[in-house]
Amino acid sequence: MGFADRHGLRSIRAMTECHTIANDVLRAEIAPLGASLVGLWTNAGRNLVLGLSDLEGIEKMPGTAGSIVGPLANRIGNASVTLDGTVWNMTANEGTTALHGGPTGIQKRHWSVTEETPTRLTLAIDLPHGDCGLPGNRRIEAVYELDGPNLILTLTGETDEDTYLNLAHHPYWSLDDLADTSGHELRVMADWMVVVGPDKVPTGAVTTAAGPFHLSKGGLIPPDADHCYCLGGRRFDSPKLAAKLHGSDGTMMSIETTEPGLQVYSGSKLPKLAAEACRGKTIQPFAGVALEPQGWPDAPNHPHFPSVRVSKDEPYRQVTRYCFQNI
């Protein structure tokens, strides 16, 4: 058995094998690779996310656009965490840092479709003990559901022993038909940001969002944005308003989530891809903005950050709602 088969990476070629859910307002296409949202169309025919359709695009796209990333989203300093005195070493894939679970994170693997209805799709993936350098036999599920002009994503995780789990949905949003999101306006319901060092790993401090990053009253997306905004000190019991994104033509999306953090990434390093690799939207730098509800990055290495520890008795659950207007 080769490397790709052992790690589920053979499914990269199955990216075009999408599942469709739809109602009278929205139509979503989801690929088993990374449980990825590769298209979200309005009934007027506009695609609201950057999507990929072939192997070339998948291999070149950072994080795999639209996927569920993890089991530890974002960056883990020195690619290691400590749990009850035991050090667990992950595989670095960004210098000495483990990004999105390392090179074989769940965004690079095939998920199984376990339930499908016209408006709802459930996918699941199992991680054995030690997979991605973390303890516990884990089962992760993603449920996509359409409800009127809303896309609801529910992520759950179960484990048979204590471990860390921090999942994030990683679509790139583009609400109009322009080549980039320079005309989009973003409002983030937070006044604080996680401070990161030159390697983009958190230092353990937080700071007041200032200058172009002060988005609590709205503003243009900072070109160098790749920061986690602090929505709260713990996961919320029910989804709270995290952000509002306005396209240049008045299309609006609001994000409600249970998560205490929102990573905002401007898409500055998106690659240029041939049109045939995309699903209706050309991909290039700044073509889409990533707004990723999640726990604060590197939380296992900063005990004062909101905890991302889970156990058999306290499993993981994230609910995020994408609500659209003027579509």
Description:
This protein is mainly β and 327 residues long. The chain is 3% helix and 40% strand. It has 2 helices and 26 strands. The strands form 8 sheets. It has a 9-stranded antiparallel beta sheet, with no helix packed on it. Strands 15-24-23-20 form a 4-stranded antiparallel beta sheet, with no helix packed on it. It has a 3-stranded antiparallel beta sheet with strand order 1-2-3, with no helix packed on it. A hairpin with a 5-residue loop joins strand 21 (240-246) and strand 22. The longest helix is centred in the N-terminal third of the chain and has 6 residues, at 55-60. The chain is globular and about 55 Å long. Residues 1-15 have low confidence and may be disordered.
What topology emerges from the helices and strands here?
Elements: H1 3-6, E1 19-22, E2 26-31, E3 36-42, H2 55-60, E4 67-69, E5 75-76, E6 80-83, E7 86-89, E8 98-99, E9 112-117, E10 120-127, E11 138-147, E12 150-159, E13 163-164, E14 168-170, E15 172-173, E16 185-188, E17 192-196, E18 202-208, E19 219-220, E20 226-230, E21 240-246, E22 252-257, E23 261-265, E24 289-294, E25 309-310, E26 316-325
Antiparallel strand pairs: 1-2, 2-3, 4-14, 5-8, 6-7, 9-10, 10-11, 11-12, 12-26, 13-25, 15-24, 16-19, 16-21, 17-18, 20-23, 21-22, 22-26, 23-24
Short descriptors:
disordered N terminus; 26 strands; 4-stranded antiparallel sheet; mainly beta; 327 residues; 9-stranded antiparallel sheet
